[in-house]
Amino acid sequence: MAPKITITRAPGTWVVRAGGAVLGESKNALELVEGDMPPVIYFPREDIAMAFLDESDHATTCPWKGAARYFSIVTKSTTLENTVWSYENPQEDVARIKDHLAFYPSEKVAVEQV
User: Fold this and answer.
1) Does domain 5-113 have CATH number 2.40.50.140?
2) What is the mean pLDDT of residues 71-96?
3) CB of 113 within 8 A of CB of 12?
4) Strand residue runs (E) in the chain
5) How do residues 45-65 score in pLDDT, each as one tens digit?
6) Alpha-carbon dihedral 50, 51, 57, 62, rounded to 10 degrees
7) Where are the domains of the chain?
8) What does the alpha-carbon distance between residue 96 and residue 10 come to, in Å, rounded to a whole number?
């Protein structure tokens, strides 16, 4: 059975940081909740400094969202492999996440509401 997926506008301003740099800030982020998984913030592509991202060869497929394409974050001191993903042609039920990017939060990547 497919998990229930809801997509809503994430309230307020959201920022993503890595390697001491702000990669993006948005007042138009989306929050995707899938089943009982933690919410994921999706940033509009135009609000992200794409110069920090390198497209990866890594790809995955979700039966409910579609094919995901991945990017690595390049910082001054390291490359954070496959830390960012995007659904270029998402399934119809989640079409709102098209042209958005999501980030795996970690000790090196912060996704925060400011």
Assistant:
1) no
2) 95
3) yes
4) 5-9, 14-18, 21-26, 30-34, 40-44, 53-62, 66-74, 79-87, 100-103, 109-113
5) 999 999 999 999 999 999 999
6) -20
7) 5-113
8) 13
| CA distance linking residue 21 with residue 4, whole number of Å | 34
- Return the amino acid letter for 89: N
Band of pLDDT at residue 2, cut at 50, 70 and 90: low
Tell me the pTM. Answer: 0.95
Q: Which residue has the tokens 């999501």?
A: 102
Report whether pLDDT(3) > 90.
no
- Nearest-CA neighbor of 24 among 38, 42, 9, 1? 42
Task: Report the mean per-residue pLDDT for the chain.
Answer: 95
Give the tokens for residue 17. Answer: 């940081």
Please report, for residues 12, 21, 76, 101, the alpha-carbon distance to residue 41 in angstroms, rounded to integers and kept in the order given: 12, 18, 25, 8
